[in-house]
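Final report, closing paragraph on structural work. Over the funding period we assembled a curated collection of sequence-structure pairs, and we close with a single example.
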Amino acid sequence: MLLLDTNIVYRWLMALPIPGPVIQRIRSEGAMVSILSSWEMLIKHDVGKLDLPTLDVAGDIAAQGFDLLAIKPEHLLALTELPKLHRDPFDRLLLAQAKAEGATIVTTDRIFGEYLSNAWVV
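Its predicted structure, as stored:
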């Protein structure tokens, strides 16, 4: 299963360019989106850093057929096991979720590959 990083989800919702192989793999394998990504996008929208189609980000994500992934205790435990390569709390929790779920995280952020061998940096 794939876990989409916030930047991929945002591109999907805003119909911004995503490489064809990424779209094909998402459609063939299915994907999860952390509820954390909804929160991150709403925070960035609130401070004027991000435009959104609607404020119902979680609903928009679900309408695309993505499974919403809640934050679970095992994700928090996995968070404590990650190396401290950078400080972005959203990225770190997404990485912990991918690790705990055994999911491949799809991202444009190269540092994710330093955390997880199954990170797919596009």
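The first helix runs from residue 6 to 13. The mean pLDDT is 96. We thank the funder for supporting this effort.
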